[in-house]
Amino acid sequence: MPGYEVSQEFTALLDRLRSAPLRADSTPIAELRANFEKLAAGFYDPPPVDFVPDNADGVDIEWAYAPTCDRSQVVLYLHGGGFSTGSIPAYRDFCARISHGTKTAVLSVGYRLAPEHRFPAAVEDSVTAYQWLLANGIEAHRIVIAGDSAGGGLTMSTLIALRDSGVSLPAAAVCISPKTDLALTGTSVQEKAYADPIVTPDGSYTHGVRYVGEGGDLCHPLASPLYADLHALPPVLIQVGTAEVLLDDSLRLARKLRDAGGVVDLDVWPEMIHIFPFFASRIPESKRALEYLNTYIKNSLHSRQTEYERTVPHE
């Protein structure tokens, strides 16, 4: 974009990430996981919240409660990490900021990771956590499902699985830099490889194979929701940067959702990299993106509540 300048903080982040790239295709899984946690720890400065561990029918979960948040409204958060890294602790700062910004409870899901637990384990766990919320009195129209990277793709897979099972769907969904095509057929995979210090084509492919297994179907619609039937889903916010290897995963997802009659807010940020809102504790652009995300969640919950009150009979 002519005249567009990124912040000094963002430039420093790029330098930091490029000096120690996360090589998912050649690094042992234990080291990858440790590196992810170390990266997240460098951006850990959460606002005051209460973190409360819990269990959803066998799935590890953790609540983030900001002061005065409405605990009858929930953001169900699915973390990133290529389905094989990432964790509840790594996303505490981000979930705390969502709870503060939306005044809702945030439920972070510790879904099972590959390669120990391959597809569809992550989908099963996220569906279980959502249905556990319903069983415990949280109404569907008071829930938003959100996630980044692999968790963004998992957000879409969860919506599809819930719809196909006839379960009431949430008010909306948020996908940050979603990984929606494990087969890596988007043109940005190669075109943006020079610009993205977090995702590489080889690393993304390796993560995908870890998830579905050798010989597994990288185009299975619940593993790669870009290939799924996307009709009758709730509104979706997609946030993505133009410097992402997975940019086309977002652009094509938005197009397919709209073609299926869906409502999409495609929020594209120039020069931004993979999962850039995650760095909101340090980076001005990330903070602004998170503010937009939080406003979207608040507006979605409000509009769905208003619609619910208008359409459901009351005694």
Shape type: globular
Number of helices: 9
**CA distance, first residue to last residue:** 55 Å
User: Could you spell the SSE succession in H and E letters?
Assistant: HHEEEHEHEHEHHEHEH
Produce a short descriptive summary.
The chain is α/β, with parallel strands linked by helices and 315 residues long. The chain has helices spanning 8-19, 29-41, 92-102, 121-135, 150-164, 188-191, 201-212, 247-259, 284-311, and strands spanning 50-56, 59-65, 70-78, 104-110, 143-148, 172-176, 236-241, 264-269.
Please describe the topology of this protein:
Layout: H1 8-19, H2 29-41, E1 50-56, E2 59-65, E3 70-78, H3 92-102, E4 104-110, H4 121-135, E5 143-148, H5 150-164, E6 172-176, H6 188-191, H7 201-212, E7 236-241, H8 247-259, E8 264-269, H9 284-311
Parallel strand pairs: 3-4, 3-5, 5-6, 6-7, 7-8
Antiparallel strand pairs: 1-2, 2-4
Structural features, described:
This protein has 315 residues and is an alpha/beta fold. 39% of the residues lie in helices and 17% in strands. The protein has helices at residues 8-19, 29-41, 92-102, 121-135, 150-164, 188-191, 201-212, 247-259, 284-311; strands spanning 50-56, 59-65, 70-78, 104-110, 143-148, 172-176, 236-241, 264-269. It has an eight-stranded mixed sheet with strand order 1-2-4-3-5-6-7-8, sandwiched between helices. The mean pLDDT is 95.
